[in-house]
Write a structure and sequence with these properties.
11 strands, N5-glutamine_MTase, two-stranded antiparallel ribbon, binds S-adenosylmethionine, Release factor glutamine methyltransferase, 2 domains
């Protein structure tokens, strides 16, 4: 059977994706090719020739991607820290910028032994599971309100436990519930949250509008309905000296720190940019008692 150069097939895929307006055509073309060939993206150069059926399958997936189907729905996975999680319809696709929240949290906890970590609005479970993987000594708790997302989180948690990670306490719950995780009140070292934060009615790309669950993206007219609940909940859960790290919309670089500063019990409020320099997440510490 005749073989074709993979390099040419990837270049053609990139061209089609660019013309379709896909934001990162080179990366997507290579990741789709790696998925079809069954190798890591960095190993594509080790596969010079592929069969016609591989090229046809790559072009089929490129057509899907050109229609706005998220790359991660096509490949079936998304990465965070050292782990990958399964994703698909019914759950939010983890975004690269959330890696910054993970990195900040891990750095903050580096001197804390056996930390207690809470991930609110866990979606696929990605943050909770990345913390559990990076900190095997931690007790990690995660909360999600959408049963469909929680089912993805359970599947991901089971897979990582199967691979040797410590189990995470995954719960169905609402961050607006004043009794949520009440047994942990005043004991938590780190609360992280990537909540829904886009103001209702904001135009979003088709792959967000049609493939991320609405309740995972939008949160009230100003986008801050869930964030207000998260701040209340975090203040209750954190021990003195414990930290909150909260992702937000790039239009909330002042509003979220202001909300945190309005809480007397929070101190050292800071806002942090993403890799594109846009305001992306806020952090604060719960005041020590002394
Ligand atoms: C932006 S997604 C983030 C998911 C995950 N943390 C990540 O970074 O990929 C927000 C998640 O919060 C969940 N959510 C929305 N409102 C909630 C609430 N009131 N209580 C708990 N979870 C909520 C949504 O179902 C969605 O899974």
């Amino acid at each position: 059977m005749s073989k074709q150069p993979l390099r040419l097939a990837v270049a053609e895929a990139e061209r089609i994706l660019r013309e379709a307006g896909v934001a990162s055509p080179r990366a997507d073309a290579e990741l789709l090719a790696a998925h079809v060939v069954g190798v890591e993206r960095t190993k594509l150069t080790m596969v010079p020739l592929v069969s016609v059926s591989v090229v046809e399958e790559l072009h089929r997936l490129v057509r899907e991607r050109s229609k706005g189907i998220p790359l991660q729905h096509i490949t079936g996975w998304a990465a965070m820290g050292a782990i990958t999680v399964s994703v698909g319809p019914g759950v939010f696709v983890p975004r690269p910028e959330t890696e910054l929240l993970l990195a900040w949290g891990l750095a903050h906890l580096r001197r804390t032994r056996q930390p207690t970590i809470v991930d609110l609005c866990t979606g696929s479970g990605v943050l909770a599971l990345a913390f559990a993987n990076a900190r095997p000594d931690a007790s990690v708790h995660a909360v999600e309100r959408d049963p469909s997302a929680l089912a993805w989180a359970r599947r991901n948690a089971n897979a990582l436990v199967g691979a040797g990670d410590r189990p995470v306490d995954l719960r169905f719950g609402d961050v607006g519930d004043p009794e949520l995780l009440a047994e942990l009140d005043g004991t938590v070292d780190l609360v992280v949250c990537n909540p829904p934060y886009v103001p209702e009615g904001t135009p979003v790309p088709v792959e967000v509008a049609e493939h991320d669950p609405h309740a995972a993206v939008f949160s009230g007219l100003d986008g801050m309905d869930t964030i207000r609940h998260v701040v209340h909940c975090a203040v209750r859960l954190l021990r003195p000296g414990g930290a909150l790290a909260l992702e937000h919309d790039d239009t909330h670089g002042e509003a979220v720190p202001e909300l945190l500063r309005a809480r007397q019990v929070l101190t050292e409020v800071a806002d942090h940019p993403d890799l594109a320099g846009r305001p992306r997440f806020a952090t604060a510490l719960r005041r020590s008692l002394s």
